[in-house]
Amino acid sequence: MKVFGLLLLCTAVHLAAVHGATRAHKALVTPLSLTAAQANPAQAFKAFAQVYGRKYSSEAEHQQRFATFQRNVDYVAAHNSRSASYTLGINEFADLTFEEFQKTHFGLLPGVNGTFRAGGNSLFSYEDVEAAESVNWVKEGAVTPVKNQAFCGSCWAFSTTGSVEGANYLATGELVSLSEQQLVDCDTSKDQGCGGGLMDYAFEYIMKNGGLDTEKDYSYWSVGGMCNKLREGRTVVSIDSYEDVPVNNEAALLKAVSSQPVSVAICASQAMQFYSSGVIAGEGTCTGLNHGVLAAGYDKDEQGKPYWLVKNSWGGTWGESGYMRLERDISQKEGAFGILMAPSYPMKKSANPKHVPEVCGFFGWSECEYGSKCSCAMDFLGLFCFDWGCKSA
């Protein structure tokens, strides 16, 4: 038992060191200069690899990635040379082709009926709402910090937690970051973890399970795994139902987003891989839905161009601190990048579960029933607990 405890202690120290190094690395990450990349591609690629921690297995792979980097620099430069309403930049995805990027950073799948709706849901509670002129749920405190799905096609899970977090905030006044990993690991009857999924199915799972665990307790690892049944039962935030926004109806989506953050599906393009700032023009954009994101508001820019404020799940160094703005009020009936084709949102009025147990220790492998407290039965010099028990609160 003591050896096992020491191993756990060493593991905890190691994880703390890893997280500290990750925070330090993130602090160093800044966008690379396009001008410098054009002037000296080899030097820029060396800086890119250093900043983003790239290590290639062979000289052949290094050269392949360098060639991809150069092509992406040319693509970004060509776009920025035009008078567009948005700019692109050299970011952490600059050594990936678009084909590679979309395999790992999207993840929206149609349902078993071939559409992006679960089916059988015709309610729209916001039909009579008068939409506000503008809304920003980030500033209102209803949106958690930007997260990162990494190399896992779990965008659907992040879109789902984003809208559930918002609904919970509006119902309770508390902003609780919820677990995407639980959805990836446990919501597997129709969704496929890192292989993709659908927000409507995820809402149905949350309803059936009685809620979701927190991000802190069931943390994200960017790979799928076995469902942790202990953590799956720690239902901290619940929802009552969900609704689909009427298809290709911008007025309806305005009403919904005016009322709460909304899960939306979009057709993510190559331009989004390198998006840096501005309002992405919507006319003539693709409508083949492949990515789940969160509509967190809407407004107009300094030139009066209307836009949707969209929270992405590619980390805070991408885009406008993890967000992008998509043009709205366009003639294309599906909206910019198909944003009007399959929006949905959870409904919440009832209180959250009251049976949440107390989690014991760093790893949370022990817990105490609601109404009791964790109590260490055996520790190591007061630093680490080998064996947890419970006592009355």
UniProtKB/TrEMBL annotation:
<protein>
    <recommendedName>
        <fullName>Cysteine protease</fullName>
    </recommendedName>
</protein>
<feature type="domain" description="Peptidase C1A papain C-terminal">
    <location>
        <begin position="131"/>
        <end position="347"/>
    </location>
</feature>
<dbReference type="GO" id="GO:0006508">
    <property type="term" value="P:proteolysis"/>
</dbReference>
<dbReference type="InterPro" id="IPR025661">
    <property type="entry name" value="Pept_asp_AS"/>
</dbReference>
<keyword id="KW-1015">Disulfide bond</keyword>
<dbReference type="InterPro" id="IPR038765">
    <property type="entry name" value="Papain-like_cys_pep_sf"/>
</dbReference>
<dbReference type="Pfam" id="PF08246">
    <property type="entry name" value="Inhibitor_I29"/>
</dbReference>
<comment type="similarity">
    <text>Belongs to the peptidase C1 family.</text>
</comment>
<dbReference type="Pfam" id="PF00112">
    <property type="entry name" value="Peptidase_C1"/>
</dbReference>
<keyword id="KW-0378">Hydrolase</keyword>
<dbReference type="InterPro" id="IPR013201">
    <property type="entry name" value="Prot_inhib_I29"/>
</dbReference>
<feature type="signal peptide">
    <location>
        <begin position="1"/>
        <end position="20"/>
    </location>
</feature>
<keyword id="KW-0645">Protease</keyword>
<dbReference type="InterPro" id="IPR000169">
    <property type="entry name" value="Pept_cys_AS"/>
</dbReference>
<dbReference type="InterPro" id="IPR000668">
    <property type="entry name" value="Peptidase_C1A_C"/>
</dbReference>
<dbReference type="InterPro" id="IPR013128">
    <property type="entry name" value="Peptidase_C1A"/>
</dbReference>
<dbReference type="InterPro" id="IPR025660">
    <property type="entry name" value="Pept_his_AS"/>
</dbReference>
<feature type="domain" description="Cathepsin propeptide inhibitor">
    <location>
        <begin position="45"/>
        <end position="101"/>
    </location>
</feature>
<keyword id="KW-0732">Signal</keyword>
<dbReference type="GO" id="GO:0008234">
    <property type="term" value="F:cysteine-type peptidase activity"/>
</dbReference>
<dbReference type="InterPro" id="IPR039417">
    <property type="entry name" value="Peptidase_C1A_papain-like"/>
</dbReference>
